[in-house]
């Protein structure tokens, strides 16, 4: 897959980018995503059939916000020892083919250069408000907004990360975050049920942070959660607050607030501000968990593992900040 001759289009080189669940091969014009055969409990890509299915899901779901970027699921074939992307014969693997977006216009890199503005937040709001308004909802999806399901998501995170206590976060911090999440769900139960009945539970993006947004000639929001609907179905506030948390993490707290308040007004959803710290705490904790897993992935380079370790610690600390701030809604 690292050989240019393996691809149907001419390319001078092939670059490899890894996450804990995927290999992404970058040619001059396209990106090809291949899923790793892993089972992390909340996702299972261990068979070719499963990987093919979830690539198809990824294609369909991401076309909601990025139809011009997500092109096709393509087979990988092997003949006489040569691997071909899109070749004939029996598939040995599948990849998702996408238009390659300019790395320098990814929102996190734009942020790192100090180039984010209120105008960009306005454009994001204008893109996201109609997306959520038209996103699927109904009884099958609404159940994911029930307090018991929200609680299950949190408890799953805590059970999977408790072995990290003492290495990635302190016992004190772990208990403060867990106590806040449990208490908020109990004290604000009526609010969560009201949001469910108001239609705030939708088929969302599920992974709305800056690395998944490209600010090029348009706004491209990509790489939604496809492998587990429980992580994509949920309160619109949980999606928006993920991006708000990421803005905080990158030092854009004023723009984070601007985004949330602007979205709440445009979507006629003032109570989004009440659940703001609750969902930002959840999202920061999830990012801490994901980076903690990456820090232990032997397939990543030592440098990438060290970066992931540092990021995990920072995200867990940020989750603690939100837990402390959100406590004002518990009085």
Describe the structure.
- The protein has 331 residues and is an alpha+beta fold.
- The protein folds into 2 domains: 4-100, Phosphorylase Kinase, domain 1 (2-Layer Sandwich), CATH 3.30.200; 105-330, Aminoglycoside 3'-phosphotransferase, Chain: A, domain 2 (Alpha-Beta Complex).
- The protein has 11 helices and 10 strands.
- The chain has a 6-stranded antiparallel β-sheet with strand order 1-2-3-6-4-5. Strands 7-10 form a two-stranded antiparallel sheet. It has a two-stranded antiparallel sheet with strand order 8-9.
- Helix 5 (147-161) runs parallel beside helix 10.
- The longest helix has 25 residues, at 302-326.
- The protein is globular and about 70 Å long.
- The model has no long low-confidence stretch (mean pLDDT 95).
Keywords:
single chain; 331 residues; Aminoglycoside 3'-phosphotransferase, Chain: A, domain 2; 2 domains; two-stranded antiparallel ribbon; 11 helices
Give the topology, please:
Layout: E1 15-18, E2 22-26, E3 30-35, H1 48-62, E4 70-79, E5 82-85, E6 91-99, H2 107-112, H3 118-134, H4 139-142, H5 147-161, H6 171-187, H7 189-197, E7 201-203, E8 213-215, E9 219-221, E10 233-235, H8 236-249, H9 253-266, H10 276-295, H11 302-326
Antiparallel strand pairs: 1-2, 2-3, 3-6, 4-5, 4-6, 7-10, 8-9
